[in-house]
Predict the 3D structure of the following.
Amino acid sequence: MMALAVTAISAAMLFCPAISLVPIASTIARKKCRGRRCAAVSLATCRQEAHAGDPMLTPIPADRYHEADLPKVFAYPHCYEPHPIARLAADELKEQLVTIALHLDSETSDDTIGKMMGVLVVRYCGDNNDRRLGYLKAHSGTMARSSGTSSFPGDFGRDFFCPPLYDRFEEGGFYARGEQELNEMTKLVERLEHDPQRKKRSDELAAVRESCESRLSAYRKHSKEMQKERRSIRQQKRPHLNEEEFCVVDEKLKQEGAAIQREMKQLKSQIKQEIQEAESAVRDIEKRLEDLKDERRKKSGHLQDELFDRYVFLNILGETQSLLPMFADTPLERPPSGAGDCAAPKLFQHAFAKGYEPVAMAEFWWGKSPANEVRRHDLYYPACRGKCQPILGHMLRGMDVEANPMDDVSKSESDLEILYEDEYCVVVDKPEGMLSAPGRNQFFSVHSIVKEKYPHATGPLLVHRLDQSTSGLLLIAKDKDTHKALAAQFIDRSIQKRYIALLNGELAKNNTKGRISLPLAPDYINRPMQMVSQEGKPAQTIYEVMEVVDGLTRVHLYPVTGRTHQLRVHAAHIQGLDCPIVGDDIYGRRDDRFSRLCLHAEYLQFTHPVTQKRMTFTAPTPF
């Protein structure tokens, strides 16, 4: 029977008034680790026996929750705050992961990238057909097995986490066989690429071309010299010969020139043949190499398609669908790499296969962040959109799921304060939560308000934008010429902007000001997130610390460039300030002390495109 080794969970961590969770203190007797073995007393014997038919299900004792406090509908998976019952399950998993780390610490390094972990709280029927609550656990990605065992030690392997939808590492499976064939083809490609005969033929071709070019160049030079000599003879003979005698000399010179042209033609033909023979020897080798690469490419594509067909997803209605049709209508038209291997699909697949009813979910990052992304250890994240949205769209069909909260219009026209207006431009103070421009599913925005208020205005209107979660000063042009003039000031950076932000953490005392230079690119798998990438666009931010109080740092931010989410990524990324902005639910965490993202565009200065006066505006900081 599986024994889940866990460390003590404090009563404070387990108690949550929102669902009246009953605090239970766990006592753990740990023995000193010897080598890779570490013994630990389980949380409670009855808990670890789980559900007799499913060792992956961890029951939640009935005295740790009240049914009335459980969620009535399932949270929208791509934008939600985990319910306390899901946090309870996640906290237990985190404690278990600490124990797992004790087993793995001798095999891992500081460079090991972490994983997204997930829990799914479900209802299931107990032995007496009574409805009980439990939870499942899963991790993102795949973990290769050695000798048929999981990369996790002992019972923390296949009987702990929900399995992948298809085990590509299954010994003797089609994917393992296909990968072996591809590996053999890759080895053959590498052998051909480094074949001494290939280099020899290539060098011979280069030598032939060089020799031919040299011979042709020499003969052209000879031809020009002979032509020059014939011209000189004509000039010398003409004054001393009569017409008939000169015609005889001229005819002879013409025949000499024609002979040289024939020799040039023969030389070119000979050179062409020599080069073709040398190219033919190289072409035979290169064609074999390209044919092999093409065959490998096709075989890889077929193998990938067959793998996609093996990923068959269930839903609560009993419907099934594979990956390829799910992604047919997406911009990529094909599943991205790793689709179906995230934690959420594994959790739902196991739940539906066992007949469980999903109640609540929580996913959190565990371990080191990838260098180009912002993933912070122990923070909760929603399901990704690029890989999971098409999949979960099918898997959650038939369930009562909350609407996307980002589509909820909680602001009205009266929330948009106009600070300045003339016949050319407008300056407004945008509230947090209001879109700058219409979104895919939400039309209401600053743009829609301005368009209605000024029906005769022309052009794009918005000179720049602010994130929906960011508040502050926004500049609007009423006509195309004004928009063009103001946009030019953004391009030449003559417009001055200043943001104020509250950071979740304290910067070092000697780190009071500086410049952050981290290029940014869209994270197409996790829209709307941005990631640090050397292939992205340059992004620079100047920062200045204003004050540090109670673990929070108030800073002024001056964006030199204007990339999407630039200030948020530069604040949160480990190579930036390494302190996410308070309330940033994309790159940091929500904060109960604040109901918003603490980022505000408080200062704006520009030159009026008509009067040429320098205009300065400020908006009070709302946090």
About this structure: Confidence is low (pLDDT under 50) at residues 1-50, 102-109, 146-151. The radius of gyration is 36 Å. The chain has twelve helices and 17 strands.
